[in-house]
Amino acid sequence: MRKDRQKDRKGSRRGRLVNQLGETQLVETILSRFCGEGTRRVLVGPGDDAAVVKLDRGSPLILTTDVLVEGTHFSLDFSYPEAIGFKAVTANLSDVAAMGGQPFGIVVSLGIPRTIPVRAVNRIYAGISRALSLFGGELLGGDTVRSRAVTVCVSAVGELVGKTPFLRSGARPGDAICVTGTLGGSEMGLKLLKKYFKGKPRSRDSSLTSWSDRTAGYFREKLPASVRKNGHACISRHLLPRPRVTEAGVLSSYDLSAAIDISDGLLIDVARIAKASDVGVLLREEQVPVSRDCEAVARSLGVSAYDVALSSGEEYEILFAVAPAKVRQITRTLANRCGTGVTVLGEVVEKRRGAFVAGRRGRRKRLLERGFEHF
Amino acid sequence: MRKDRQKDRKGSRRGRLVNQLGETQLVETILSRFCGEGTRRVLVGPGDDAAVVKLDRGSPLILTTDVLVEGTHFSLDFSYPEAIGFKAVTANLSDVAAMGGQPFGIVVSLGIPRTIPVRAVNRIYAGISRALSLFGGELLGGDTVRSRAVTVCVSAVGELVGKTPFLRSGARPGDAICVTGTLGGSEMGLKLLKKYFKGKPRSRDSSLTSWSDRTAGYFREKLPASVRKNGHACISRHLLPRPRVTEAGVLSSYDLSAAIDISDGLLIDVARIAKASDVGVLLREEQVPVSRDCEAVARSLGVSAYDVALSSGEEYEILFAVAPAKVRQITRTLANRCGTGVTVLGEVVEKRRGAFVAGRRGRRKRLLERGFEHF
User: Fold this and answer.
1) Which residue of B has its CA nearest to A58?
2) In this structure, which topology does domain B175-190+242-366 adopt according to CATH?
3) CA distance A104 to chain B (A)
4) pLDDT digits (tens, 9 = 90+) for B258-301
């Protein structure tokens, strides 16, 4: 009897676990409990792609952080060192871009196991350097520590280009919903990695060594000839995503109503804009700009390229809402200045009409604002 | 024979591992390979306590990052959730202070296991909030992800107060070497935790649950009565270190030659100033301001309080070099404005005279610039 009481007490003392609550709700709890309105300095606090802080003089500052953890965000079997450094940087630069900013620096906290080869560490930093030289920003500082899992935590700072940041919350009924570039490549790349590169269980040390030696060429060679070319393009898109920093600079001249970068998938990120802006959305599936590489691989694998494109995360395209009258000018300028396409996916509607995507075969799917649940 | 060749090739392919190279040399490799001179914007790049970046207008920006990883920087047996959040913040604020800055915001990337109780996450954030409300800065944003080990990565931004940052590299022969506050408490706290709180091997889940429920009171109660009061003060100093942010604000009015925060121990951090400034140093052990709590516990345990104070890391006191003529004024102002003591530990000398600490019994110890080797 006493034992039972103890057990009960232990059960209730244990309380709810993080995996029972889920990531979205956990983040909401933290936001509501620990993030107040902020001072007058904080123009945008937690809850958007990045924070925006007013300084006494000069442009507002944009600040963001993102961490990649082995086993959660990437697998040693599916990646190589440069790619991890590269992606950790570009995920952050994309957040700065999605607020309408230009990055000028990063700091890196790198967690690595004791038995990782030194050249792997150098190659992670080579990927970090490469991303900075392509998209802007300097390596300002960092911390290197021991950790069981390879962990790359990057924080980026940038400056706001226009007068006000692009928020998730400004979309208005009547706005066009647009996206830069094409979608689907990243998710298709991950599918191929899972299909063809799932390693047999090995010792940790031998996994780290293979990982340390692997390059982009390894993935290309091991793909079946039937999907090699397009498949490798998808894998590159997944492993080495390109943030739309230059495009964000151009978009800053236009009065966008709302913007977000596609990090968790089009449907989820559109739903986030809808929720933050308190509006409805109607997307047309046939408008979604599916990447050609994704389409070609989808045909080989016999899956729907549209389904892949609608849910593909880590694309880092910019999704935005803007008055329809401005779309033509934006499209022309982005094509001329960056060689980047813009597609109108649908429109912002009144909230009571809900958030839906109209499928190609008359299907109608409700959009749910629910991120990937990592827990 | 073929097998031997393969083995050899594997051996050489494996290359040097991080634990063979060591942390100091690893960081030096990274700095020399991936961090250039920087642009004109970067006033201080990697290698000091924090980076300093010039903005087009307004005060230069200070940026730093620090990560605490369970199993490397803390043990679940020796800590509790608020303390981890608190220390992750104060480690960063201390770096901002050591450059002569005042922090205004942080971003947090939190890695947590799936089976951690939600209340532990809330308590980590409560510790983060508490540190910010005591020492300045706002929680601007973050990322919460799944990770096997509890990992708290904080990046802080601040503004430079004076005209130029406090560097490690400006100490000149003739300068006095000074330190704020007292030393030894943090290391003695860790010694007590290791002596009295080393847990029996338990399941991961039960360790996480005990950790989630533990408070500061637990450590106090479990200490033997003979060391309870002073011992608990030492443990608090170790678990909840206080960065010298206000003191840094005052010190910014004086033309310090060099400064660093004591994060890896007095001897190591003095040696870092000596190396960066290309000078020698002569410290007098009997001048070291040993904390009273450390002294009292040292007597009980029969160890040398001086030895503990010389090597005690995570003290977050500010160690600085300054022209001797200014010491009296600095001492008076810090006492009046912050209630914080200043002690002269010795002097900066010509490089050829070396870096030594003169012991109380005629011992002479060479100072080595060698951080804690985490690998």
Assistant:
1) B57
2) Phosphoribosyl-aminoimidazole Synthetase; Chain A, domain 2 (3.90.650)
3) 9
4) 999 999 999 999 999 999 999 999 999 999 999 999 999 999 99
